[in-house]
Amino acid sequence: MNLYQFSSPATFYPVAGRLAPWFAWAAAICAAAGLWIGFGVAPTDFQQGDAYRIIFIHVPAAWMSMFVYIVMAFWSVIALSFNTRLSAMMAQALAPTGAWMTFIALWTGAFWGRPTWGTYWAWDARMTSELILLFLYFGVIALRNALDDPRRADRACAVLSIVGAVNIPIIYYSVVWWNTLHQGASVSATGSKMNTIMLTGMLVMSFAAWFYAIAAVLWRVRAIILERERGSAWIAALPGLARA
Amino acid sequence: MMDFLNMGGYGFYVWSAYGVTALAIAAELASLRARVRAAEKLARMDKR
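Structure tokens for the assembled complex are given below, as produced in the milestone run.
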């Protein structure tokens, strides 16, 4: 099998259409299981009471907000290096989902912080760098909308995305490098400080966030392909568009 | 049921977090659906 053929929008368009529903169903099943564990099985925390249940969405959303950015920067590097259209379209499709994930991470963090720390917001390094991440996503989206030539927008957005990637290690290590109100990582590659059931619920919700993001990006990249490949012969020949 | 909604006194915070997350996902999916529909409509118009 030649994997390079999937770098063509014409080949990838139907593949994305077939894959997206599977990821959406996987997301729904994981979310249902994760919420059941999070609210039905996991016990009340002895320090935080039931307020801690917010972390079942906060942590997965915060992880995804950073991971989506890394993937967006990766496709930007590929797009700049090889001048491939689909890579730029992938980067374009990732930005809104990354922005939503960042918004959810900030919002749920505020509503967890208020009962736990006594404040919705503090200008500490973790929260401030996460807010900058949201502005970076907004910047990438706005820059694309400001440029009429899509190929030129691809290059400008790729440069901005790659430069902005410097913020990701800053977010990740902010709780180590600076004395922040936000606590350090409870889960790392070397282990976890969490109760097993709570950790399971959080990981299942993380899978839900992954699958959701993949489904949303695949659907969006299909729309982007149609928008940008408008007028090409393969789109005119698409069988699915004949109906309605 | 009321106990569940009350969340040990943290109901406002828990449901504000979950509610707005649900709204955010619904908003993303709705805008995505509108964008896909619009792109497909344009592609169909080109065909004719």
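Chain A has one domain: 19-40+49-227. The mean pLDDT of chain A is 92. Further analysis is deferred to the final report.
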